Amino acid sequence: MPQRIDSESEPTTPQRPRNQGPLANILNVFQEFTPSKTQRQMRGLREELQGLLNDAEDAFSAKDSEIADLSNQVVPARPRRRRKRFHRADDAPASLDSQNSETLEDRTRKAGRHFIIDEGLFFIDEGAIWSLDVDDDFDYSTEFDSKSTRIQAQLQDVIRLLPDDAVSRRTEEWIGDAVHGMGGQRSATAYRLRRPSLKHLADATDLKHFTTSSDRFENFKQRIGYVPATDTAGAYYSAFKAPILYDEFAGEIDVDHLFRNPLLLNIHACILRGADGPTDLFKDNPYRPQAPYMEKIHNITRTSTGAIANAAVLAIWLYSADTKFLERGNETNINYRKRYRQYVEELRKGLTAKKAWVDALLNYWDGVFFPDADDDDGAARGAGDGENAEMESVVDAFANAPSLETPPAVFSYVICVISYLQMAGL
Q1: pTM as predicted
Q2: Is 152:125 a contact under the CB 8 Å cutoff?
Q3: Nearest one of 197, 369, 344 to 274, comparing CA atoms
Q4: Helices (H), 210-277
Q5: Residue pLDDT, tens place only, 73-108
Q6: In this structure, what is the dihedral angle of CA atoms 11, 17, 20, 22, given to the nearest 10 degrees?
Q7: What CA–CA distance (Å, rounded) separates 296 from 32?
Q8: H helices then E strands: how many in the chain?
Q9: Could you state, in order of their start, the residue ranges of all structural domains in the chain?
Q10: What pLDDT, in 10s, does the model give residues 237-263?
């Protein structure tokens, strides 16, 4: 029930030097695995270690790609030998080098992480998605007609992100294992939000109440939509009447302010750009780490509806009494999988129906994260009113430029007749 509270204190991880490089950061965490640690501290260290390992793997993959690109520039081109790509080292013949044998699995795992960032924190049905046949004629406008169409739509999203050479093998168990490795990414993200990134996500007053589950419940429950029990109904958490989702909240659902709380954008910045991603996010020169980061690794240049829904779910979890990020909250009983589906459904339905509030919302997020990217009409998404007004005048100037004068139709007819008569010698 929502009232159930775990009052046990959550020990904080001791401060240690950060950003010393992937290997140094991992070794620093390893050194803290001591017998004196409590189970809760050990769990936190494991989650932090998983996050560091994920970051290191992505960084190394990005470096490998850079090295490969440089090699291609300096090595003379030669005909490529066609050969089968294997997904595991023990499946590959001895003649294949280990890097090639691991490439497909690594890229599939990378696709799983990309899915977490852009498409969704959870699968609708993890068992069904791998056995379902791909509908090549699937119509996204039917996505929310039934559970089967929701699963098919999610399968389409998975297929779009999977490496081409993994698509035909998607029913093999290792593919599911690699993509399901995104569970580790969920844990790493949750750890990042509650620990190293928290200073960017909560003000000084709120920070004092993050130590225990009970403290979060008492201080933040209304913010995340808590509705107390009455004589006729039990307590619950409202999905859409949660002030934390809005930049302005007056007690009712207002789509013009929904999903615009700066906290949601700061959370997304943590996912895209690392623990310090929210630094100067709303300024002209926002922080970007020197090391490879998710936004660049996955070449993310637009805000997706899934990313917004993810940020909304994570914001609620962050301020909740829940101590772990599970599909169902271990203290609040919030169904986070269902909550994600509710948010993304309204966003995608609105996008399909060309609702103004969804279009404006995506433009707002894009203006913050990708201000230099172009809209479909060529306008800079992050441009201010003055720049956009100037561009409108430029467009008008070119559109209204005079054309070559064309003689009226009657004159054209007369000219044709005269030409015909001259040719006929009349």
Answers
A1: 0.69
A2: no
A3: 197
A4: 213-220, 262-273
A5: 333 433 433 333 333 333 433 333 334 445 788 888
A6: -10
A7: 31
A8: 17, 2
A9: 22-72+85-189, 197-373
A10: 999 999 999 999 999 999 999 999 999
